Amino acid sequence: MVFTLPAPISAIAYTNKETIYGLLFDIAAETLRTIAADPKHLGARIGVTLVLHTWGSALTHHPHVHGIVPGGGLALDADRWVSCKPGFFLPVRVLSRLFRRRFLEELQNAHRDGQLKFFGEHVDLADAAAFADWLAPLHQYEWVVYAKRPFAGPQAVLAYLSRYTHRVAISNRRLLACDDRGVTFRWKDYRTHGRTRYKTMTLSTGEFMRRFLLHVLPSGFHRIRHYGLLANANRKNQIATARELLHQPTPEVPAAPSEAHTASAALRPTFVCRHCGAPMIIIETFARAQHIRAPPGSSVPP
């Protein structure tokens, strides 16, 4: 699933990243879980993994979340697994309407609580009446919610995650040149089809850096989040229940390391990251800096 913010909201999201990106995550997950739980649609509790992307192919500001959703969920009384229809998960038009309504409601609440900041051409939106007038047309837009075809098995899911979860706005393979003219890179024009959709663009160095820095997230902001059955708090038990109802074997636990390996590992010094608490591994040791000595005197007379 892909949930995209309309352009007017994207414009104010740049100066309100933490608030608006956070709403994008939470409202997208809430929308999926609400419609999936409705007996008229799926009637099940689902899990969702959402990954935030803020860029378009040309490095423009284009906030959207990619969602990976199982093709079914636990029945509301958790006594059976409910699968979606083949080739159909949830109606995207229904998802789009609920996503639009709930996002605009929460955006209005954020403005009322003073969580939004406005600059430049949007400075007038700090006024409550002006902001309400600005929001009004957005209730009429068709917000984009897109459902892709399901993955072809677990390996395809892992391949997708490895490509999308930790990527940045542009990869090295898309960079073609950096010279006096600026930076040239390859981009994809989604408005065309076929080979002609792959084009090149040259931006001045300053403009290229400006576009790249649009996508720097606030410090500590989590761009991968899990909800429902996959939420961190109850993921282990919920997945075990799903496996049992689907008659899937529990994956084998890796064998415990040998005593000799454990003993040798215990002798190594342990360093712990002061930010996340994870153990740190020594990959290289630098010798103490050597003071520079004066060059030897010349034996040849001047």
Would you kindly provide a written description of the structure presented here, covering whatever features stand out?
The protein is an alpha+beta fold. The protein is 32% helix and 19% strand. The protein has eight helices and 13 strands. The chain has helices at 7-13, 17-37, 92-112, 128-135, 154-164, 205-213, 235-245, 259-267; strands at residues 2-4, 44-45, 47-55, 61-68, 72-75, 81-83, 145-146, 175-179, 182-188, 198-203, 224-228, 271-272, 279-280. It has a five-stranded antiparallel beta sheet. Strand 8 and strand 9 form a beta hairpin. Helix 3 runs antiparallel to helix 4. The protein is globular, with a radius of gyration of 26 Å.
Which range best describes the helical content: under 10%, 10-25%, 25-40%, 40-55%, 55-70% or over 70%? Answer: 25-40%
- First-to-last CA distance: 80 Å
Given the helix and strand composition, which structural class is it? alpha+beta
Runs with pLDDT <50, length 5+?
Answer: none
What is the structure about, briefly put?
This protein is 32% helix and 19% strand. By secondary structure, the protein is of the alpha+beta class. The termini are far apart.
